[in-house]
Write a structure and sequence with these properties.
This protein is α/β, with parallel strands linked by helices. It has 12 helices and 12 strands. The structure holds 1,4-dihydronicotinamide adenine dinucleotide (NAI) and the ligand NCC(=O)COP(=O)(O)O. It catalyses: 4-(phosphooxy)-L-threonine + NAD(+) = 3-amino-2-oxopropyl phosphate + CO2 + NADH.
Length: 333
Amino acid sequence: MSPAPLPPLAVSLGDPAGIGPEVVAKCWDHRSAFNLPAFLAVGDARSLSAVWDGPIVTIDDPRDADSAFDVGLPIFHIPAGDADIPGQPSVAGAHCSLDALELAVGLARSGSASAVVTGPVSKQQLYSIGFVHPGQTEFVAERCGVASENVAMMLAGPTLRTVPVTTHVPLHEVPRRLNPGLIEARGRATLRGLQRNFGIADPRLAISALNPHAGEGGALGNEEQDLIRPAIDALRAEGWHVMGPLSADTMFHEAARSQYDAALCMYHDQALIPLKALHFEEGVNITLGLPIVRTAPDHGTAFDIAGEDRADPRAMAAAIRMAASCAAHRAAA
Ligand SMILES: NC(=O)C1=CN([C@@H]2O[C@H](COP(=O)(O)OP(=O)(O)OC[C@H]3O[C@@H](n4cnc5c(N)ncnc54)[C@H](O)[C@@H]3O)[C@@H](O)[C@H]2O)C=CC1
Ligand SMILES: NCC(=O)COP(=O)(O)O
């Protein structure tokens, strides 16, 4: 007997003045070529019509998304006060992006959506309206009742997956935010996430150093021995395949990447620079450690090109496909 079809995916449009609406609309346009399952958008329908002439179907029940999807792009409409102008973020738009995120996460938590895919939001705009989380990752974790240290922000592309231990914090705070417990928790969330979402039975994790040349035996810093090594030992004691601490400058070339399924890095740019250098056009951000599936494209709001029909939808398409694939893995398990 074939498995029951999964509910549609919920895709929040992100900031209405950013490129989220455009890339979601382009995904619907190219749904066959991109091999996308049915999804429903959540956000201000006017942000779609500002940048797209295609058909929009307003729905208020996710069960209508499947049939509507053949007719037009189904949307749960959230009005954002005055309609936003592409490229000109506003306070109302920030509230709309947060409302859309909240609703889309709620649909996934209730089982009305099989996963949530989040469009790009501006953290600066969200912070300005009192958003207290570093990013959407931590917001979704909180809504799911998971402590933020037990989730992992993975950036995934065809030949590389990376996870930063510290995420959106000033660089000078990184050393004092790192501790063996946090590195271990992120490592464990990553390893379990590889099993649960990607079906990798015996995952291999590479853990980076913090300092140049992995600290050069202590001459260039002690974090490797004091913080990272104890976390590696603890994960190995649980039976996981873990290597490191590896010098960050030599762990991302092709031969090195073939040795592991994911790289755990100490800070944001250490993880995201190699991923975006290799796979910017198709990079996916997936939150591991949640009871629901949440993915996002790797890029941001790109206010500089919003409304110019220049936004590349491939990362959003990859995020939608990965969400569907992870949801299917979980359903099968
Ligand atoms: N998942 C999310 O919600 C994310 C949100 N952001 C937010 O986005 C805002 C802007 O961040 P930036 O660092 O400028 O990164 P960005 O990704 O928005 O833009 C960087 C550069 O790449 C270009 N670009 C980005 N996506 C593109 C696409 N799909 N097609 C063609 N060109 C594209 C932009 O035009 C810009 O020149 C920030 O406020 C940040 O908080 C950033 C990353 C992820
Ligand atoms: N640089 C990655 C990023 O900003 C994604 O953050 P989040 O909003 O998905 O937590």
